[in-house]
Amino acid sequence: xxxxxxxxxxxxxxxxxxxxxxxxxxxxxxxxxxxxxxxxxxxxxxxxxxxxxxxxxxxxxxxxxxxxxxxxxxxxxxxxxxxxxxxxxxxxxxxxxxxxxxxxxxxxxxxxxxxxxxxxxxxxxxxxxxxxxxxxxxxxxxxxxxxxxxxxxxxxxxxxxxxxxxxxxxxxxxxxxxxxxxxxxxxxxxxxxxxxxxxxxxxxxxxxxxxxxxxxxxxxxxxxxxxxxxxxxxxxxxxxxxxxxxxxxxxxxxxxxxxxxxxxxxxxxxxxxxxxxxxxxxxxxxxxxxxxxxxxxxxxxxxxxxxxxxxxxxxxxxxxxxxxxxxxxxxxxxxxxxxxxxxxxxxxxxxxxxxxxxxxxxxxxxxxxxxxxxxxxxxxxxxxxxxxxxxxxxxxxxxxxxxxxxxxxxxxxxxxxxxxxxxxxxxxxxxxxxxxxxxxxxxxxxxxxxxxxxxxxxxxxxxxxxxxxxxxxxxxxxxxxxxxxxx
Length: 487
What we know:
Blueprint: H1 3-14, H2 18-28, E1 48-55, E2 57-63, E3 69-75, H3 78-81, E4 85-88, E5 93-96, E6 110-115, E7 120-123, E8 132-133, E9 146-151, E10 158-164, E11 175-180, E12 191-197, E13 200-206, E14 211-217, E15 225-226, E16 239-242, E17 245-250, E18 253-257, E19 264-265, E20 274-278, E21 283-286, E22 292-295, E23 303-304, H4 312-319, E24 325-334, E25 337-348, E26 363-370, E27 380-382, E28 400-404, E29 407-411, E30 428-430, E31 438-439, E32 455-460, E33 466-471, E34 476-481
Parallel strand pairs: 5-10
Antiparallel strand pairs: 1-6, 2-3, 4-5, 7-8, 7-9, 9-10, 11-34, 12-13, 13-14, 14-15, 16-17, 17-18, 18-19, 20-21, 21-22, 22-23, 24-25, 25-26, 26-27, 28-29, 29-30, 30-31, 32-33, 33-34
Helix pairs in contact: 1-2
């Protein structure tokens, strides 16, 4: 009996599917000449060189017509097939470093195994019995570790691997809030502004006579520490963070701080009357007569910011679209260039003015800023010039913006003008840089809005937690999208 015949006999004993294995054996033989079997090349070594999942299904729970729980399945597609597997050749282990979705059905999975020198893979059954040839068309149960033997093409040796397929133990798409200790300082606040600075969250609380500053470490929610900073009443609404620097416009004085506790005066020229926000390198403000202003040197010098219009006759029409109140700014990085910012600004026109009393949507503007040498200065462009824009952001009091999971989210109080929006009832989400806005399905609003809650302020800390504090009740909520906490 020659080597090939011996190998076929051996593999036949290992598998109940002898015909399939026999065919596979002939396919893997190389250099066969019909007139000279001696040219068949068989090898005495082998290994698994690649492993991938080629098919799986996801299970979903739903409620049946009778009210009971039922399950249906869908194809997992790229949610599974795109997951890479690592092969540890020293310890003979195969595993995925990125877990599969929580609702992956591990009991019925298709896989592909590539081997060295045409080795043949067989998997040990979960119940006592013969090893079974690994076929790309037969599903395998990976609910527990599986042992795979790969036999060399001469049938004389094999190597053994353990394959582990893991999936998440939590729903990555779930957003979970927790309610934390009530802060008495927030109960009587006339206004609250939350910002994240480094690994801390700062609350600027406006009282009847001053702005008080409170700090909580991002990793703790036990209590808030009050700083002794002496700030004016207006400071609470003139706060922004650019990179690791905090800027506060305290009346007519621009202050800089690296911790929210200690401040130094910025020798500013032509500073604005209101501080609106920032990008990675620019500060934005508004003059007393409602013109946008910008500083590119950390607040030292200020000038008029550019608004795009066609000609002098068009300037007045465009400037009438500029917001005058409830203004918020956020910056999105541009993936194609580390030196470019996409800045989004939202706000409301003065609805007490007769010309704008019928406004029902906030005005949304964007500015693309390229910091490369020799590039032209960015200009603000209104993205919803007309009320008929599809999926607009409703006009609301106390508008706030933040980025989360690559999206821009807006939050605010009750509607103004002709907007009938309920106060703090939902986050609005934009996936296209502020052009369109829809109620967010990603982030829910925690807690019921009650009459004793005078406002809500939000921010996102360095650990992807959304913080929400409530004026009037002093309640503090903190939550995160589960998968953003995975390491």
